[in-house]
Amino acid sequence: MPTLPDPPGPYEVGATTFTLPISPRGIGTLEPALLLEEVAFTAFYPTSLKQSPLPKAFRKGLHWLTRPLRDAVQGYAHFAGISAMLVWPLVLFFGSQLKIPVYLNAPPLSHDTASQASIDDASSSVPKSTSSPWPLVIFSHGLGGGRTTYSQLCAHLASSGRVVLALEHRDGTGPVFRTRSVDPATSHRGLYLRPEDVIWDEEVPPEEANLALRAEQLEFRRWEVYLAYHAFRSLTGEGEHQSLLRVDGASIIGEIWKGVARCDKDVALVGHSFGGATIFSTLSNPPPSTDTRPIPISHALALDPWLEPLPSPGPSPIASANDQHPKMFVINAEGFTLWKDHFTRLQDLVRAWDGGRLITFVGATHLSFSDFLVMMPRPLRDASAKPNLRSINNIAQSFLDDKLEEALDGLTTRKMEIHWVDPSRWSRNKRRKRRLVGNVGDVVLH
């Protein structure tokens, strides 16, 4: 049975999924295809069952796959372009029981409580802390992803003392979603959206349809980022949840969330692939409406970002009131670094941010940043999957902690060198391939 490792930090991790119903609004020119009527995200956060009056009331394990399972099956079958009959066995044998090792709907741990716990127990592994709230991280997934696809990273950061909002984008980039809070009687399912599924107001050449759709989806995602942030800020600021709902329909106790997250400064944006493009798009555009306050972003972490949907030249950071741009850090996998034109553009983009840093993990693949490779059963799992993800998560945490240089000093680093590798005897493709020089897990500094 596939399993996921426990979060490594000193704090236990809770997870609660929220939805925010809003007045339906069309984004861009694609109103029928991109209709924003509900924002959804899973919050990962520090918790402590020792501090809970009902420690046995909160079970450990958040389903990794969307429920009901038929939605997940239809979603992944549609995304992969295969029959649902082929997906059902995989779901039943591998995915139906897969759970994220976090405590479902457990109350968040306040910073004050964590501080007192470390004082009361001198042997506690919980680090000493101040009375300030936990830092806030907003995570944006890539194509084919969702709010649980990167649970290892999100739970890792939460176990270190952060609140992470993992968005479930409703822009047709995930395999499946189901609206729940607008009207339960008319709940509907949304599937992955392909360019050929879209009817444009004005004729768009077929060769431009893909990137045109992605541009509209980026605007949609910026709305989701801002709406999720401001709804959660209201919840943690004054305990006011307004229209915010729990996905399971249970009541939100606003008082337990008050003061949990620091939303007024030092917010971090993190995203993978198209989520990385979302990060750059958010940082290079003003808030989506004139009455929407900016997000006080201090750190931006892009994981193997896909740049093609972004306008060229650019994007570049917009000027802020104090002329200070967020700290920028990009972690690439080997494939995107060997993609010549794309990597050249990425280097130029990172230079636009003062002090921006760019590294590549040798041997890492585009999926190395997600849960996919580590949740496979041992016979099917690559031996480097867990070490790669652990290294990625550790260095991501170090960047958010402003300890990046110390973390890099503890890794094997090298300059970028490329060599040609002969195909294996069993490979169908007999062409030689370009590879980075180094061992799996080495870090190339650019």
Number of helices: 11
Mean pLDDT: 89
Give a count of the beta strands, DSSP E runs of length 2 or more: 18
What is the top-level CATH class?
A: Alpha Beta
Output the helix-strand order: EEEHHEHEHEEEHEHEEHEEHHEHHEEEE
Distance between the termini: 40 Å
CATH architecture: 3-Layer(aba) Sandwich
Largest sheet: 14 strands, mixed
Helix content: 25-40%
The CATH fourth-level homologous superfamily: Alpha/Beta hydrolase fold, catalytic domain
- Low-pLDDT runs of 5+ residues are 118-125
In total, how many domains does the architecture comprise?
1
Rounded to an integer in angstroms, the radius of gyration calculated over CA atoms is 22 Å
Mind sketching the topology for me?
Blueprint: E1 12-26, E2 35-47, E3 60-63, H1 69-80, H2 84-95, E4 99-104, H3 111-120, E5 134-140, H4 151-159, E6 163-167, E7 176-178, E8 189-191, H5 206-238, E9 245-246, H6 254-257, E10 261-262, E11 267-272, H7 274-283, E12 297-303, E13 327-333, H8 334-337, H9 340-351, E14 357-361, H10 385-400, H11 404-409, E15 413-414, E16 418-421, E17 433-436, E18 443-445
Parallel strand pairs: 1-4, 5-6, 5-10, 5-11, 11-12, 12-13, 13-14, 15-18
Antiparallel strand pairs: 1-2, 1-9, 2-6, 3-4, 7-8, 14-18, 16-17
Helix pairs in contact: 1-2, 4-10, 5-7
Nutshell version of this structure?
This protein is α/β, with parallel strands linked by helices. Helices cover 29% and strands 22% of the residues.
List descriptors:
single chain, 446 residues, Rossmann fold, 14-stranded mixed sheet, two-stranded antiparallel ribbon, 18 strands, 29% helix, lipid metabolism
